[in-house]
Amino acid sequence: MPERDGYIPGVPCWVDTSHPDPEAAVAFYSGLFGWEFEDVMAPESEAQYFIARIRGGDVAAIGSVPDVAAMWNTYVSVESADETASKVYDAGGKVVKEPFDVLDAGRMAVFLDPEGAAFCVWQAKENKGLRIVNEHGSLNFNDLYTRHADSAKSFYTSVFGWQALAMGGGFEMWTLPGYGDHLEIGNPDLRKQMAEVDAPKGFEDVVASLVPIADDQPDVPAHWGVTFAVDDADAIAAKATELGGTVVVAPFDAPWVRTTVISDPQGATFTASTFVPENSNLAAQDDTALSAG
């Protein structure tokens, strides 16, 4: 089900980057993933916001944010940004940007969880979220990197109703009860397909991942990261280097995937992952590699 037409509340629905030089970022990501871009801001606007597309479907965006470190941002679909702000307060989080309208596209807000990981919420109006997902060059996962999993579980369960699904090796996934039932409306064979690749019970409800930050990485803050699906993780790592990016973690095999961590030329880090069902029985990679995302 790579093409989507909206997201139920509690599901990550959009990703974008904040870049000091968005045009340079456009050049990098168009070369890496083949994205086509459109600046959707008015000609007279000083800001830029480039929406990336594959076959005309939205896959990500790049925005201009001067004097701020480049980074990827995760947006979660909600029924009401204002009501979610109240939940964030009550659960011990902070509001960075109070809910505000983005023209007719939707309403959003920016929050910090109790550990300081930033995330956004999106109350859709005309823009229903990413159109293309789970294929080469599009979003595959949103990943929370944390040192305090128990605190994170309490917070995100209170805000979004998420539950944790243990995957082994200290690695866990976030699930939204009932999400698999929603996906099966568009893909009746979903659970059958997951059973064929030995996916864990409950995997159909997965909406994001929960990754521990290693104790020997004291300078890595809690944060949300993004994973893009790619046909060949090794080829993408090589291409990123050619385009001026940095391979932070060289391609390695992990359960169900071969994956690599890349930093673009302005420092925004992301993961690129190739689905390898033959890797389903591999033990989880050590936390040091996983924490670099």
Describe what is shown at a glance.
The protein is of the alpha+beta class.
CATH architecture of the largest domain: Roll
Write the H/E string, N to C: EHEEEEHEEEEHEEHHEEHEEEH
Strand numbers in spatial order across the main sheet? 2-3-4-1-5-8-7-6
Percent of residues in β-strands: 35-45%
- The class by helix and strand makeup works out as alpha+beta
Shape estimate: globular
The tally of beta strands, per DSSP, is 16
In whole angstroms, the N-to-C terminal distance is 26 Å
CATH superfamily of the largest domain: 2,3-Dihydroxybiphenyl 1,2-Dioxygenase, domain 1
Average pLDDT figure: 91
Descriptive overview:
- There is one protein chain.
- The chain folds into two domains: 12-124, 2,3-Dihydroxybiphenyl 1,2-Dioxygenase, domain 1 (Roll), CATH 3.10.180; 138-290, 2,3-Dihydroxybiphenyl 1,2-Dioxygenase, domain 1.
- The protein is built from seven helices and 16 strands.
- Strand 15 and strand 16 (269-275) form a beta hairpin.
- The chain has helices spanning 22-33, 81-90, 149-160, 179-186, 190-196, 233-242, 287-290, and strands at residues 12-19, 36-39, 49-54, 57-64, 71-77, 94-102, 106-112, 118-124, 138-146, 163-168, 171-175, 206-212, 223-229, 246-254, 257-263, 269-275.
- It is globular, with a radius of gyration of 18 Å.
- The chain has 293 residues and is α+β, with helices and mostly antiparallel strands.
Characteristic terms for this protein:
16 strands, eight-stranded mixed sheet, alpha+beta, 2,3-Dihydroxybiphenyl 1,2-Dioxygenase, domain 1, globular, 293 residues, 7 helices
